[in-house]
Amino acid sequence: MNIKFAALLAAAALSVTACEQQAATPQQASAVSAADTASATPADAPSAPPAAAPQTLTSSDNAVSISVTGNFQDQLGGNALPEGAEAGTILQQYDENTDITLTVVDAGKPVKPAKEYYANLKTALEQAGFASLKAGAATENRMDYSFTDTEGNNHNCINIYSPDNLYAVCAFSSSADNATLAETLKDVKLLKKAM
């Protein structure tokens, strides 16, 4: 297995780790909110979360954009980023209202042709034994897949192949189903700078 391919599999594993960490975050926030609410006066009571709005999220290298509707907040600079993820993670956003995390991982320059790369990726996903694995047909520059990990978290990913970079774009959640995650990723673009 080559290093770039292993990096994308690591991205899938990374998304599992990040998802587990994100799953803990809303509970911690709820505990803090409950304590704050109990001691709050009506004047300083927390307001309802803002309504979902159209957003365009762009990776830190300006190579990948995702147009979504939600309240996604940047997690790259915060403590929610799993240890060791800084090297390839170029976007991580979390929407507390929908419990969906979006990530983009740059796995570097491809070393194999797209057809061979996607065949190897599909085989590796099948061998990983993920529940509910669905791998779409690969095109010359992208392959979609979804699965449920051993913790019950749903993942929906798009791997993008460009001559200079491989990108793994994933949406994952402990509560949203794969159809919802796929809808979240319906408008992913590789920007011209990266092509």
Quick summary of this structure?
30% of the residues lie in helices and 31% in strands. It contains three helices and ten strands, in the order H-E-E-E-E-E-H-E-E-E-E-H-E. The strands form two sheets. It has a seven-stranded antiparallel β-sheet, sandwiched between helices. The chain has a three-stranded antiparallel β-sheet with strand order 1-2-10, with no helix packed on it.
Give the secondary structure arrangement, pairings included.
Layout: H1 3-39, E1 53-58, E2 64-70, E3 73-74, E4 89-95, E5 100-106, H2 114-128, E6 131-135, E7 142-148, E8 154-161, E9 166-173, H3 178-184, E10 188-190
Keywords: Signal
Protein name: Lipoprotein
User: How much of the polypeptide forms β-strand, as a percent range?
Assistant: 25-35%
- CATH superfamily membership of the domain at 54-78 and 86-190: Mog1/PsbP, alpha/beta/alpha sandwich
CATH topology of the domain at 54-78 and 86-190: Protein Transport Mog1p, Chain A
Distance between the termini: 25 Å
Protein name: Lipoprotein
Biased composition (Low complexity): 35-46
Keywords: Signal
Region (Disordered): 35-58
Describe the structure.
The chain is built from 3 helices and 10 strands. 34% of the residues are buried. The model is unreliable at 1-43 (pLDDT under 50). The chain is of the alpha+beta class and 195 residues long. 30% of the residues lie in helices and 31% in strands. It has a domain at 54-78 and 86-190: Protein Transport Mog1p, Chain A. The protein is globular. Strands 3-4-5-9-8-7-6 form a 7-stranded antiparallel beta sheet, with helices on both faces. Strand 6 (131-135) and strand 7 (142-148) form a beta hairpin.
